[in-house]
Amino acid sequence: MDCRKVGALILRLRKEKHLTQKEVADAMHISDKTISKWERGLGCPDVSLLRDLSHTLGVNIEQILNGDLDPNEADGGNMKNIKFYACSYCGNVMSSTGDAGISCCGRKLAPLIAQRENEDHHMIVEEVEDDYYVTIQHEMSREHFISFIAFVAYDRMIFVKLYPEQNAETRIPKMYRGTLYAHCSQHGLWSREIRKTR
Fold it and tell me: What are the TM regions of this chain, as residue ranges (predicted)?
């Protein structure tokens, strides 16, 4: 751990949050002289303080230890680059439009890799009025179910969270084209391209 890099990052993050050294110190129940020492690179935070420091500055502990935030490129938030993440422990579902370090239940999550639909994970799409009516003939038990259906178009995403013991179905407003996704709690993410026919 490079104390100068860590200190420079702490200083930068503190200023971004418009906090004084005393405000950070008070939030962590330590002396403001300690914060000053870190920011000047004369020492590094003790491991026992990293969690509080992470919470106060709003950054991951790993980034503090690296002394760098490693930001994405400015144009990284493109809907074509959407990634879904699902926690297998609590069922939490997240998405990002660029590279992201996402964790849940104390574990880092890898982005789900979409597979093309197959006969076990087939999405039936019917055009009903101004909507796509999407159904999936799939088990919906607590152990094995479709956890969400999402439709991603050029500039937007429609996300529908599903729960065990309900039907795997939803209605989505028609758009010219996009990608339909469905997530199976046991078999991962499935996708299908959709194009409006009329």
Answer: none
Which CATH code is given to the segment(s) 3-66? 1.10.260.40
Which overall architecture, per CATH, does domain 79-195 show?
Sandwich (2.60)
pLDDT in tens, 110-139: 999 999 988 888 999 998 998 999 999 999
Give the predicted TM-score (pTM) of the model.
Answer: 0.68
* Lowest-confidence region among 44-58, 109-123, 184-198: 184-198
Closest C-alpha to 151, from 122, 187, 193? 193
- What Cα–Cα distance (Å) separates residue 78 from each residue in 61, 147, 150? 27, 24, 16
User: Rounded to whole angstroms, how far apart are CA atoms 161 and 58?
Assistant: 28
Q: Where does the chain hold its CATH 1.10.260.40 domain(s)?
A: 3-66
Distance CA 97, CA 76 (A): 7
Count the helices and strands in the chain (H runs, E runs): 5, 12
pLDDT digits (tens, 9 = 90+) for 157-185: 999 999 998 999 999 998 878 999 999 99
CATH 2.60.40.730 domain locations along the chain: 79-195
Whose structure tokens read 């690179």?
41
